[in-house]
Structure formats: C-alpha cells, structure tokens
Amino acid sequence: MALIPQGPRTIAPGAVHVPGWLTRSAQRDLVAACRDWSRPPAGMTRVKTPGGRWMSVRQVCLGLHWTPYRYSRTHTDGSHVKAFPEELARLAVAAVATAYDDPGDYAPDIALINYYDSAARMGMHQDKEEHCDAPVVSLSLGDSCVFRFGNTENRNKPWTDVTLESGDLFVFGGESRFAFHGVPKTMPGTGPSDIDMGAGRLNITIRQSGIES
Ligand SMILES: O=C(O)CCC(=O)C(=O)O
Ligand SMILES: [Fe+2]
C-alpha cells in the first residue's frame, strides 16, 4: 500500500484505477463474504472452456452464473445461483461515482468472484456477455497482481500494465468498456496480513447484465 494515498488515475478513456479505495475493514468484510459465497451449493468451482480447457482461476457468481461464454440462472452443480446482494450494488454505485464525474444510472445485478492461487492467471479477453454497456467495477483483495489493460480492437498491444493491490478499485466503462484485459501474473505473498485471508488473490467483478430478471 502506498504511504501517501493516491487519487484516481485514468489509464485509458473511461478506465480508472483508484488505489486503496477500500478500507482494511471493508476488505476484511468482503473476504468474509467471499468465503460465504464460495460455499456449496452454487459455490466456487473451476471453469471449463468450450474447448475443454480448465481456467486456472476458481470462480463463484452472484445474480447470474457465468460459464464461457454465457450467463444462466443455474450453477453447473444444478442449483440456483446465489442472489446478488444489495450491499454489493451500493458499493459498486459508490465506486462508479468515485471513478467518474458523471456516473449516470448504474444498476449492477451480477458479480463474478475469481480466486487466483499463485499459479493462476487470466488471458486477455473482453467482458461481452452482458447485454448492456454499463461500466464494470473490479475490486481486488489479497495478493497484488499485474492487470493488463489493452485496447478494444484485439488482445495484442498497445496495453498498459497496472499493479492492482488489495483494496484497489478499477472501473472500466465508456470507450473502454469492451477493452481486452487480463491478469498475466499475481505476486504471491504480497497481500496484507490483517484481512483474514490466506494465500492468493480475490477479484470481485461487478457488472450490469442487461438481462431481464
Ligand atoms: O482478476 C481480475 O482483476 C480481472 C477479472 C476479469 O477480468 C473477469 O473476471 O472478467
Ligand atoms: Fe474480464
């Protein structure tokens, strides 16, 4: 964590990094919530791509269940996906208001929680299964990572590598909503010791699905 709190930094038009946005106590609360959401039924699982490859992150979804590359109401274990909690909606609305001068109407209804062990990474991709171009809100907990924020054309350069630490917020919307992004690596052992989280990194990605309930 930086000794002097840093304000929002625009990485690309509509893509804003806010270091240290979550207090330690908010981080602890979110870690505890992630632990609850991870429990079965509809808990944290490994995810297989249609090509038959396993993603290296483990994932649990709230509101709608995402599997590459679509949303459904049913978890792969057959149970109904867990509800998207109102407190996450409030947090995400506050996040968008921090990132943008004009936050517009934001009505998030889904979240994906990714757990990265020391070997996990996420390839360059777009978040494009939503039927809506409202911003994506991303919160990081635990180990730091390199978050690669690319362009909207393809998964190649130009990109900007941003270090996301525990408590950081990253919002991408507007012109950057469909930018390719990924996590080429995490930095094991860099997470804070006072948020009641073991090894690894958690990322909570909150979105507005645009899918009728
Ligand atoms: O872990 C991250 O910071 C990014 C996660 C992500 O891009 C996703 O879940 O779509
Ligand atoms: Fe993503």
UniProtKB/TrEMBL annotation:
<keyword id="KW-0408">Iron</keyword>
<feature type="binding site">
    <location>
        <position position="125"/>
    </location>
    <ligand>
        <name>Fe cation</name>
    </ligand>
</feature>
<dbReference type="GO" id="GO:0005737">
    <property type="term" value="C:cytoplasm"/>
</dbReference>
<dbReference type="GO" id="GO:0008198">
    <property type="term" value="F:ferrous iron binding"/>
</dbReference>
<keyword id="KW-0479">Metal-binding</keyword>
<protein>
    <submittedName>
        <fullName>2OG-Fe(II) oxygenase</fullName>
    </submittedName>
</protein>
<dbReference type="GO" id="GO:0035516">
    <property type="term" value="F:broad specificity oxidative DNA demethylase activity"/>
</dbReference>
<dbReference type="InterPro" id="IPR005123">
    <property type="entry name" value="Oxoglu/Fe-dep_dioxygenase_dom"/>
</dbReference>
<dbReference type="GO" id="GO:0035515">
    <property type="term" value="F:oxidative RNA demethylase activity"/>
</dbReference>
<feature type="binding site">
    <location>
        <position position="181"/>
    </location>
    <ligand>
        <name>Fe cation</name>
    </ligand>
</feature>
<dbReference type="InterPro" id="IPR027450">
    <property type="entry name" value="AlkB-like"/>
</dbReference>
<feature type="domain" description="Fe2OG dioxygenase">
    <location>
        <begin position="107"/>
        <end position="210"/>
    </location>
</feature>
<dbReference type="InterPro" id="IPR037151">
    <property type="entry name" value="AlkB-like_sf"/>
</dbReference>
<dbReference type="GO" id="GO:0035513">
    <property type="term" value="P:oxidative RNA demethylation"/>
</dbReference>
<dbReference type="InterPro" id="IPR004574">
    <property type="entry name" value="Alkb"/>
</dbReference>
<dbReference type="Pfam" id="PF13532">
    <property type="entry name" value="2OG-FeII_Oxy_2"/>
</dbReference>
<feature type="binding site">
    <location>
        <position position="127"/>
    </location>
    <ligand>
        <name>Fe cation</name>
    </ligand>
</feature>
<keyword id="KW-0223">Dioxygenase</keyword>
<keyword id="KW-0560">Oxidoreductase</keyword>
